[in-house]
Amino acid sequence: MRFTALFARVIAIAILFACSVVWRPGDAVAQESLQSVLLPHKAELSDPSRRTIGPVIASLLASDHPAISDFLRKWEAREVYQRPGDGLFFYAEDTGESLTLIDIDTGEAMGQVGSREVDQIKPNAGVRREVAAALVPFELNAPDPARRAEALEAIARSADASQIAPLAASIDSEPDADLKARKHRLLALLTAQFGADKADRLAAIDALSGDTSIEARSVLNQLTARRDAVAQTVPENANIARVLMVGSDITPPEAHDRLVANELAPPRQTATDLRDVLAQHIVDGRVGGVPLHRLNTVENRAIAYEALEAAGTVPPRAAEDEVARAVAAYVFYEEYREPDPDITNAAEAALTATSRMLGIYQTLDLLLDGVSLASIFFLAAIGLAITFGVMGVINMAHGEFIMMGAYTGYVVQLFVPDYTLSLLIALPLAFAVTFGAGVTMERLVIRHLYKRPLETLLATFGISIALQQLAKNIFGTQARPLTAPDWLGGAITLNDIVGISTIRVAIFVLALIFLALLLYILKRTRLGLEVRAVTQNPGMAASMGINPDRINMLTFGLGSGIAGIAGVAIGLYAQVTSEMGANYIVQSFMTVVVGGVGNVWGTLAGASMIGFLQKGIEWFNPSNTLAAQTYMVLFVILFIQVRPKGIVALKGRAAGD
Amino acid sequence: MTTQDTAPDIAPRKSFLAANPSVLWFLGALGLFTLCVSVLAEGFGLPVLSTSMVKILGMTLCLCLIAVAMDVVWGYCGILSLGHFAFFGLGGYAIGMWLMYARTEGIVIDSFENAPIPPTQTEITDAIATQIFGVVGSNDLPALWVFAHSLPLQLAMVVLVPGLLALVFGWLAFRSRVTGVYLSILTQAMTLALSLYLFQNDTGLRGNNGLSGLQNIPGLLDVPQSTLALWFFWASALALGLGYLLFAWLVSGKFGSVIRGIRDNEARVRFLGYHVEHYKLLIFTLTAIVSGLAGALYYPQAGIINPAEIAPIASIYLAVWVAIGGRGRLYGAVIGAAVVSLASSWFTGGGAPNVDLGFYVINWTDWWLVLLGLGFVAVTLFFPRGIGGLFDYLVRAK
User: Fold this and answer.
1) Domain ranges of chain B
2) How many A/B residue pairs have CB atoms within 8 Å?
3) Nearest chain A residue to B171, by CA
């Protein structure tokens, strides 16, 4: 009860307040109020139709009232309400149960009303388009830069000739340099497409040549858009792109299909049609005198049909020679949609230049992709290059060390929500975890198998399936996210074609760091010296006071630890699953074998070759990465025939056996 | 290694079987096993073993056969091939093509039965192609299927495709003297390439859908599956028996000595004047062919083949079976394959009871692979002779 009373009071106040606003003539002194500008058109505004609205908008805009474009925008967005009693317009805010009316002149709240007491004005889609088009020039000169940018985007989305003049007019007064450049560019695109003056258009088209942006290419493609056509002779006044030769450019059946589509020839009879027609004319187990059981060849069916044709029971069909005759009577050509040949020639020339630039950029992009894939392979294989390449131990569980590193990163992120910090913690932690795992494995298993390399393969494979299943038991089968920090999330783009995600750049940098670090350790430190000594001649190294057991353990730990760090890096761009390591293991071995065993440079060479080659093969058939991988592996098999010791083969005593 | 000294003299000149009593023992055990399964099978008399159990046993025999082949190539000749399961799969694909084509042909011809006008040959072929390849969005029969209509030709493919692939690959690899772990990696790469190739939809073998419905044998559609299962079981047992005999004979004579020599010291055998490459190539190709035949018997019992079967991991498992069973002993390979594959299906199929530790329940479907992996490490480290070594020990103890 009390609520209703309160509600009634609020409405009463609102109405009083609203009336007081209307009855205040003093406001119109400085300037005519928006309300009064609108009132003469209130009938059309409250129930707009597409046909009648044009002049209304024009006269409203002609009033030059500063708030008129705002009003039209809100009107278009269905935010304007009209009170049925006096036909006044209001903006309103919907507060759920009721509406807060807002005065269109002062912007002040005028109290609350129920949604039944005012009518929302809902212009239909056609009207809203009209309004939007009429508003373009206003929006282009709007004081708010964001609205100007929005207007530019709206023009680019639905370009047409009418926008050229307002756009050109708005350029000089544009204060923002960036927006000015965008306006110039959009004007050039519009001129090329719709310009009234031919010389202007040609100049604009010429300026687009070599421009590889998507907008420029789509403009050029629209200008050179063709349609397939057919006629008895090539028409004189048409802008012909090319005439098609039947047989070479277009097959006779295709040509005939085109005739049929243009209703210039009867459709060909398919084998199914023929069968259906024959089936309708079975008389006493025969069709046209041919017994049914003999109709299982094309020849006999033709004989039967011709018999029916001769008897006049079926219409003649388009046989092969008739198809050929019909096709020969017509010319098939492609015609530009743009009628002016000068324009299309200029556009074609511009397009040629553009596609040349496009080719260069695409090659560049392909090279970047290759580098990034190569660095991923390198990261995955570099640990293996130490354990397999330097020590000669086949570690099938290497992939699982990569997985361990990635899961370490995932677990760290569970505890440390800041991605940058968690990455900084995860990298050394992953190294520590997999270093520990590697050393444990070396102590427990591999140490006993140095004399039996094939059995190392099998034992480490056993460890690999156990670790994989263990990870599945702990983390489940679904992929776990390892989220990159924001500063690694974006992409570095040169233009619309050449671009590379930041994370891949980071992986590349990481690969370079590892290369340098590893070279340093192996060539410049005491540990590296001892590692090389032990791998070349364990007995002699031992007699020089080096402990081969310790060195083997450390070397294996180092290789495994690097696999862990690689795991974090790979996990950042791929998903972390228990099977992620298995995806890299065969490729990693191939990388090491192709590159040449026992040499970090070899691994780099192997990774580069495999990475670039795989991207190169993918380029020929982008839809099929499986095929690229297949040919890649085949190539590796053949390559090893030619260079069994890999790209960088060790010579002399270092080569061992 | 030598069992001759315990063999009793039956004939004046020791025949092959007399010199290798283990072969007779094995064949006897296999015969007894076959007899027991036959009597107990649903399709024959006592319904103790269900049809699916008979199929599993028949498939296990095929796996034993490929394990024997693997043992010859690895345990006797020292080539750790990680590609023999690819040959197995190729054999399966070759027979699967005929099974699928012929069965689809039957269905298509039945569907034309009520058509007013008999179909032309082209119409039949088109309908078959649509039926088989509709799933990968194609209506044409690929060139690969040109022999699929004929059982004899496709049976020839079972032998020729794995044989030729092994011959070419082996020739390339052995010629450039790729040995040891490098050869293993290379064979693994071959397997990977093959499975990646088969995973593609446009290579004419239905991509990752694989070939299916292989358990329905064209022409024998009215024979119940329980009987068919038994027939295939017998065929698998026969194939295993013959294969075992062939390989036992092959490795027992002078040829066997040469390949064991190659395993132990390749360079020395080469210096003795033997063409090591020829021996290796022969063994590699022969075992590949036997693997293909085993696959051709396996997949009609399994009912479906897809590229995942050929993935590199399958070939590694094959090596695991042989190693657990005991290398260099043919019966060891059979024991390893049978024990591990049956145990795998028992544990992962939920047959094994869960172990309640109080604080944690060990669910074998989750933990079997961990157990297998660790067990495998233990076998490699502590029992390099595998389960077969246990038999040697028992025989010698007598």
Assistant:
1) 4-397
2) 152
3) A641
Q: Mutating which of A469, A578, A592, A645 best tests the B interface, going by the most B Cβ atoms within 10 A?
A: A469
Determine the residue of chain B that is closest to A270 in CA distance: B123
pLDDT tens-digit series, residues A583-618: 788 888 888 888 887 778 888 899 999 888 888 888
A462: chain B residues, CB-CB within 8 Å: 320, 372-377, 380
Residues B257-284: pLDDT tens digits? 999 999 999 999 999 999 999 999 999 9
Q: Which of B85, B312, B96, B301 is nearest to B204 (CA)?
A: B96
What is residue B205's DSSP assignment?
Answer: S
CB within 8 Å of chain A, chain B residues 306-335: 312-313, 316, 319-320, 323
Q: Nearest CA of chain B to the CA of A396: how many Å?
A: 11
Q: Would the CB atoms of A630 and B182 count as touching at under 8 Å?
A: no
Residues near B127 by beta carbon (within 8 Å), at least 6 away in sequence: B108, B111, B112, B119
pLDDT of B219 above 60 = yes
Among A289, A313, A336, where does a domain finish? A336
pLDDT digits (tens, 9 = 90+) for A307-328: 888 887 777 776 667 777 778 8
Least CB-CB distance to A296: which of B118, B312, B316? B118
- Are B189 and A636 an interchain contact pair (Cβ–Cβ within 8 Å)? yes
Q: pLDDT tens digits for A338-354? A: 888 888 888 888 888 88
| φ and ψ of B194, to 5 deg | -65, -45
How many other β-carbons are positioned within 10 Å of the β-carbon of residue A177? 8
Range of the domain at A267: 227-336
Interval A447-453 mean pLDDT? 83
Question: Are residue A426 and residue A549 in the same domain, yes or no?
Answer: yes
Q: How confident is the model at residue B287 (pLDDT cuts 50, 70, 90)?
A: very high
Burial of B142 (0-12, 13-18, 19+ CB in 10 A): middle
A410 shares a domain with A271: no
Nearest-CA distance from A610 to chain B in Å? Answer: 13
A629 to chain B: which residues are within 8 Å by CB? 193, 196
- Asked if A180 and A67 sit in the same domain, the reply is no
The confidence score (pLDDT) of residue B11 equals 44
Co-location of A7 and A110 in the same domain: yes
Partner A contacted by B172 (CB < 8 A): yes
**Position with higher pLDDT, B156 vs A36:** B156
Please indicate whether, in this complex, the C-beta atoms of A296 and B186 are within 8 angstroms of each other: no
Sign of CA dihedral B251, B255, B256, B260: negative
Asked if residues A430 and A502 have their Cβ atoms less than 8 Å apart, the reply is no
What's this model's pTM, rounded to 2 decimal places?
0.77
Are residues A453 and B188, on separate chains, in Cβ contact within 8 Å?
no
A220 plus A235 within the same structural domain:
no
Instruction: Evaluate whether A407 touches A617 at the Cβ level (below 8 Å).
Output: no
> What residues contact residue B30 under an 8 Å CB cut-off, 6+ apart?
B237, B240, B241, B244
- Check residue B6 and give its pLDDT: 46
In a domain, A386, yes or no: yes
In a domain, A361, yes or no: no
DSSP, collapsed to helix, strand or coil, labels residue A240 as strand
State whether A420 and A531 are in the same domain: yes
In a domain, A612, yes or no: no
Asked if the structure places residue A351 within a domain, the reply is: no
Smallest Cβ–Cβ distance between A445 and the set B193, B319, B377 belongs to: B377
The H-assigned helical ranges of A172-251 are 177-194, 198-208, 214-223
Same domain, A514 and A422: yes
User: What proportion of chain B, given as a percentage, has pLDDT over 90?
Assistant: 40
pLDDT, residue B38, reads 86
Residue at which a domain ends, from A225, A244, A273:
A225
Which chain A residues touch B193 with a CB distance below 8 Å?
A: 629-630, 633-634, 637
Q: Are residues A145 and A97 in the same domain?
A: no
Average pLDDT, chain A: 81
Task: Tell me if B199 and A626 make a contact (CB, 8 A cut-off).
Answer: yes
The residue among B26 and B48 whose pLDDT is bigger is B26
